[in-house]
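As a representative case, we now present a protein record of this kind.
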Amino acid sequence: MTSAGPDADGERRTGPDTAGVVVLGACAVWPLITAAAGGGRPEGMLLAVLAVAAGYAAGRIGGALLPVAAPCAGALAGVGLTVTVPHLAPGPQITPPLGHAGATAAVLTLSAGAACCAAWAASAPAVRWALRLLAAGVAVTAAVLGSLTGCVAGAAVLLWSLAVGRIRHRGPAVGALAVAAAGVTGLTWAVAGNAVPEGLAASLEGRLTPHRVGLWRDALGMARDHAGLGVGPGRFGELSATSGQSPLSDGKPHSAPLQLAAEQGVAGPALLALVFGWLLYALWRSPRSTPVVLTAGAALTVLAALAAVGNALSFTAVSAGGGLLAGLATSRPFTDDTAHRAVAARPRGDRPTP
C-alpha cells in the first residue's frame, strides 16, 4: 500500500491536469473561430484564459514550495491591489462605473479565501488564528472601501471555512457549491428572460438597477438571434441599444454567461461552465486537506456568482487571482512528499521497507 502511494497520487493528478489543458485550450480556440466568422476582438478572452492558466501554474508552484506563506502573500497582495489601484476600487465617485465594485468584491473574496487556506495549512494554532484574523480584516477592508458585497462575501467565506473543519467527505460539499453557482446563473437568465414572478422581478430589478437588467435582456436577445456563433467577441457594445444610451457604459452586459452567449453563441457559456466544473473537479481530486479544498471552492463559487451578475471577470487581476487560488488548493506541498518518504523508509521488523 505504501509503495503504491506515489503512483496513485500521480494518477489522481493526471486527470484534472489533462482536463484543464483541454478546457482552457478550447476556451482559447473558440473566440478565434467566432471572430473569424463574425468579426470582433478576441484579445480580451485570450488574455483571460492566459491569466487563469498563469495564475493556476503560479499557485501550484507556490503551494508546493510554501504552502502557508504563498496563500498568505496572495491574500495581502489582493488587499494591496484593491487599495492602491483606483480602477478596482469604487473610490469617491458618486456613480462608479458598473463592474468596478464587483471587481473589488471579487478580489477581496479571493483574498479572504487565500488567508483561510493558509490558516488550514498552518500547524501552529496561533498562526492559524492570526491568519483567520487576516481574513476578517479583509472583510473589514471591503466595508471601509464601500464594498458591501465584498464585506458579506469575505465574511461568508470565513464562516464557511470555520464550518468545514469537521467535514471528511468533500464530494457532497463540492456538489453543493456547483448547485449554488448554477442557481445564481439560472436566476440571472430568468431575470433577463422575464421568467420570474412580478414581485420578485421588481425587487431584483431595484437592486440590480434597470440599466443592468436592460443590458442582460439585450444580451439574451442577441444570443437567441445568433445562437450558433454569436455576434462576435467584443461586439456587444456596438449592437446593444441599452449600452448606447448610457455615457458610462463600457460596452459589456455585466454578466459573464450572458456576454459569452451573445458574443460567442451557446458554446460560450458552455465553455465557461466547463472551466468552473474543471476547477471543482480539480479541487475534488486535490491531495490537499478537505478544509483547504472546500474553502477555496467556496471562494471560487462566490466569484462565479459575482461573474454571473457583474463584470468581475473582465478584470485580469480577478481571472489571475481565481487561477492562483485554485492552483494553491490543488498543489502538493513538498513537505508531504518528505513525510511520505520517511514513512515508507520506516523499518518493519528486522528489515527496512525500500
Remarks:
- The CA atoms of residues 27 and 271 lie 6 Å apart.
- The radius of gyration is 21 Å.
- Residues 1-6, 91-98, 342-354 have pLDDT under 50 and may be disordered.
